[in-house]
C-alpha cells in the first residue's frame, strides 16, 4: 500500500520569519497532525552556500529547532534533525551533481536572484544547491514536500533529476515527488517592498517579522509596512494591482485561518490605519505564544541537541538503505 512520506526543510541562515512560518512551518505542523510520516530538516549545508559565521550558525540551528518545536512539531511524531548530521544528503547530492545538467541549474530563478550580476563570485555550492535539495528529498523517497511558492521551480527540478536518474540507469527507483503549496500565504512579501518576498536573508530587519520579535516590534513593523492610500476594497479583484495591500490581507487571512476573500468582505471600506492595528493584534496573539515557548526551550540547549541527535539517527535509518541501493544501481 502507498504511504505518503512528507519531507521539508528550512535554512538556519537566520531566524524564522513570518514567511517561513506561514508558507512552511505551519504547514509542516498540519501535515504532522494529519498523521502522515513527516521528516523535517534544518538544512545547514544549504545555509553555508552563502558564508555563515560559525558561532551564529550553531546558535541559529538550535534556535530554529526550538522554533519548530514551539510551533507544534512534536519530536515523538515527526523526525526533526540537522542536515549535516546525516551524510546521506551530501552523498546523494554528489551523484545528482553528475545526473543534473549545468543548463538546468543556470535556469533557476533563485540562482539568478542570489548570484545576481556577480555570478563569477558566487559559490559553486550556491549553483549546485537544487541538486542537494533534490537529494534531501529523495534520500527518503519522499512523496510530498510542503513549501512556499518560491520553491516550486526547485521541486520541478527534483522531478527532472529523479526522472533522469531512473532513465539513465533503467530503473523505477525514485518517486515523482509532489510539491504541496497550500494556504492563504504561500508567498509572503517584504513589508517594505511588495515586489520582493519576505526573507530571513534580506538585509533590512524592517522588511520582515521574525518569530523572535516582541509584541512592540511586531506592531511597529506592521504600522510602518508600506501600503497605498486607498481603503480596503469590497472584493479581492480590487487588490489586483495593490501588492502591498494584498500582502497584508493574505497575512491576516493565513493567521486567522480565513480566506483572503472573507478578510476583504469583513473589512470592506476600512482604511489601513484601522486594519493594521487589527492585523498587529492578530499577529501578536498567534506568534507570541510561540516566541515564549521558543525562549523557554532555548534555556536548555543540551536538550535541543539530544532531540536533534535522536532525529538524525531516525533519519539515517531510513536514508541509509536507500543510499546503499543507489550505490548498487550506479555500480559502486
Ligand atoms: P528564506 O528565504 O527565509 O531563507 P528558506 O529558503 O530557508 O527561506 O525557505 C524555507 C521554507 O520557507 C521554504 O519552503 C520556502 O518556500 C518558505 N518561505 C520562505 N520565504 C517565504 C515567504 N516569504 N513566503 C512563503 N513561504 C516562504
Ligand atoms: Na530561500
From TrEMBL:
Binding site for ATP: 11-13, 19-20, 148-150, 188, 197-201
Keyword Aminoacyl-tRNA synthetase annotated: yes
Assigned GO CC terms: cytosol
Residues in the signal sequence: none
Compartments (UniProt record): Cytoplasm
EC number from the UniProt entry: 6.1.1.2
Quaternary data: Homodimer.
HAMAP family linked: Trp_tRNA_synth_B
Protein name (record): Tryptophan--tRNA ligase
Organism: Gemmobacter lutimaris
Amino acid at each position: 500500500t502507498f504511504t505518503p512520506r512528507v519531507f521539508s526543510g528550512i535554512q538556519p541562515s537566520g531566524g524564522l520569519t513570518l514567511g517561513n512560518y506561514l508558507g512552511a512551518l505551519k504547514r509542516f505542523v498540519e501535515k504532522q497532525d494529519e498523521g502522515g510520516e513527516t521528516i523535517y530538516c534544518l538544512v545547514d549545508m544549504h545555509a553555508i552556500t552563502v558564508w555563515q559565521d560559525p558561532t551564529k550558525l550553531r546558535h541559529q540551528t538550535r534556535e530554529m529547532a526550538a522554533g519548530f518545536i514551539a510551533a507544534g512539531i512534536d519530536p515523538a511524531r515527526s523526525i526533526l534533525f540537522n542536515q549535516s548530521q546525516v551524510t546521506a544528503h551530501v552523498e546523494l547530492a554528489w551523484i545528482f551533481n553528475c545526473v543534473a545538467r549545468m543548463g538546468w541549474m543556470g535556469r533557476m530563478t533563485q540562482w539568478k536572484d542570489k548570484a545576481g550580476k556577480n555570478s563569477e563570485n558566487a559559490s559553486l555550492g550556491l549553483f549546485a544547491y537544487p541538486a542537494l535539495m533534490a537529494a534531501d528529498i529523495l534520500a527518503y523517497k519522499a512523496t510530498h514536500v510542503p513549501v512556499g511558492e518560491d520553491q516550486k521551480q526547485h521541486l520541478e527540478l527534483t522531478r527532472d533529476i529523479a526522472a533522469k536518474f531512473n532513465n539513465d540507469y533503467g530503473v523505477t527507483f525514485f518517486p515523482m515527488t509532489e510539491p504541496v503549496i497550500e494556504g492563504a500565504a504561500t508567498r509572503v512579501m517584504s513589508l517594505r517592498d511588495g515586489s520582493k518576498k519576505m526573507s530571513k536573508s534580506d538585509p533590512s530587519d524592517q522588511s520582515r517579522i521574525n518569530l523572535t520579535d516582541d509584541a512592540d516590534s511586531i506592531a511597529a513593523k506592521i504600522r510602518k509596512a508600506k501600503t497605498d492610500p486607498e481603503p480596503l476594497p469590497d472584493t479581492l479583484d480590487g487588490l489586483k494591482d495593490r501588492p502591498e495591500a494584498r500582502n497584508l490581507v493574505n497575512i491576516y487571512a493565513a493567521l486567522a485561518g480565513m480566506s483572503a476573500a472573507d478578510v476583504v468582505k469583513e473589512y470592506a471600506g476600512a482604511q489601513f490605519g484601522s486594519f493594521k492595528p487589527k492585523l498587529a493584534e492578530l499577529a501578536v496573539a498567534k506568534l507570541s505564544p510561540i516566541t515564549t515557548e521558543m525562549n523557554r526551550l532555548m534555556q536548555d540547549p543540551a536538550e535541543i541537541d539530544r532531540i536533534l541527535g535522536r532525529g538524525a539517527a531516525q533519519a539515517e535509518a531510513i536514508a541509509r538503505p536507500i543510499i546503499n541501493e543507489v550505490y548498487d544501481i550506479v555500480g559502486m
